Amino acid sequence: MKRFFNGQYVGLKDDNEKTIIPAEYDYIWVHKNEYAIVRKICFYGVIRLSDKKEIVPPKFAHAEIKDKYIIISSMKKYGVYSLDGTLIVPPTLTKEALVEFEKTIA
Q1: Which in 28, 45, 70, 89 has the greatest CB count within 10 A?
Q2: Res 26 pLDDT > 80
C-alpha cells in the first residue's frame, strides 16, 4: 500500500494502483495493513481496509487502535469502539475510568 496525493489531500492505493481510500484526508496512518487512522480537518476516525468501510467516523480529537478495540476521545472524555465499528462506550469516560475499563477487556 502507498499513499497518493490530490492537491493537499492524501489517499491510499494498493500495489496495483487501485484506490483503497480516496484522497480526501489530511493524513493517513496504516495500522498492521488492516486499518487506517485518518485525519480530516483535525478530527480522527478509522477505516477498515479489507472492505474500505469507515468504522469510526472522523469526528474525534483522537483515535488509537489497540489489539481488540479502538479508543477515541472528545473534549477530554474517552470512549471505546470494537474493531467492527460497534460503539461499546460513548466518549463519557475520564482517563482514570478508561484505564479501569481497559483492565476488564484486556
Answers
A1: 70
A2: yes
